[in-house]
Amino acid sequence: MSRVGSKGQILAKLVEHHDHMEDALKAAFNKVFVESGVEVPTITGLAMVERMAPAFSSYARILICEDCNNADASAKKILSGKGYRVEWQSFSIGQIKQFIRIDRHVPHEIDELKLMEVWRLVRPAYVARMNLVYKVAKAAALQDYWYERYPVGVVAVPTLSNGYHRYGILGLVNEEIFSREMLKDNISHKSNWSRWRTERKPAGNCPPSNYLAMILSLPGCARMWGELSDSWRCPICGRSKFEVVTFTKGKVSFQTHLPGRRSVAWRSVGQICMACCSVVKSMKWELEKGYGVDVNDTFSCITPDELRSIITARSHSSPFVNKQKAQKLVDRWLSC
Description:
- The protein contains 13 helices and twelve strands.
- It is mainly α.
- A hairpin with a 7-residue loop joins β5 and β6.
């Protein structure tokens, strides 16, 4: 299973292989909202979708080597290139075993003839599942009586089935020894923490006309939306509530953040949009993880005026970051 990577490192990684029906259900849920033009939020529908997802999976989650997991992705790429729609398809370990060529210390190769044989057997069930997924998602999006979430702070009766003490076994392991063993003989490669200021993120899409119903169907987003007045604008980038809404891969989102109060410069600033917050967090990560600079509090690495000076806002998208101005702010920290 082990092999040498492109950077000379030893690769022997295990990953959790799983079906993608939960993602398929959520995508279908959002698709129904857009296609149907639903204007009324459904709070219980999404909760129902999350609970039903495992019932549509064709196999249970399982730990496999990364090469086998990559073979699954490669197989889907081959099928997609032949015109098949396989966005949510995921092959089981028994199916993967049938179409991979295995050799020692190298990635698996795909036997396309055997892959097509497996796909011909799997495809009818996949199509049937996707049709059923859409029907369930449609019912969840158009009707609001499926499942009642408990209010924040209310705890269900603790049982093994709802996850009580699911991670209790970690209490049997000494944390210090566990951490030391996990870090032993690790080879780390330098990450590019400057991408937040050197690479331009793509523009987002304009949300559908019924975006508000979709936002109010998501408990977290609904809470953040309701906390702000209709006239609210981000105090940093100046975008309105609507302009802060993102619409990516069929998913609508609205997120804000209240800056920490440890930094004097930010104490008078209210809720800011998550896009502006992400710029601040990215700068802190570069200073700390990229250069080893000790930043006491996330928002102490940059002032509100400095943040405004390096960004250009974009509706429904991450802001443009001025490379030269951002570089000067980082350099100033490094010269201290």
